[in-house]
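Section: protein folds

Sequence with per-residue tokens
===
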Amino acid sequence: MSQGPAKVRQRLDQVDDDPDRRRLDDGGFLQESEDTVDTAGRASAGAADREALRAGRDLIDQASKQDRRVLGWARVTDGNPCAFCAMLFMTPQAPDYDRQWQAVTRGMTGAEARRAWRRRTAASSGHWPGT
């Protein structure tokens, strides 16, 4: 699976090295080329979304650090949060969960952070995932 321009170039170079694979009447070649470009487009769009969201978060973070009136953060969710967001938002221990989340997942993002959090909660409850 391709993940960005370098991988797309690598995949297309592989196809280019095989003269039998460059035929426009070869359905497999056309499908592989289309899949490669399609995957790269999705990866690029996802990266653009993440960077756009990060810019807004960074702006708020920097502005709050410069404003002495800022006391902290308020978590906000929509009317249909996932189970994890609901746990963080709706429990009296929400501030504590937030501090724990920050400590357990420092330097991690996405699935890696969720796995670290699950390991921590499983270890503290005495239950391991899958049991």
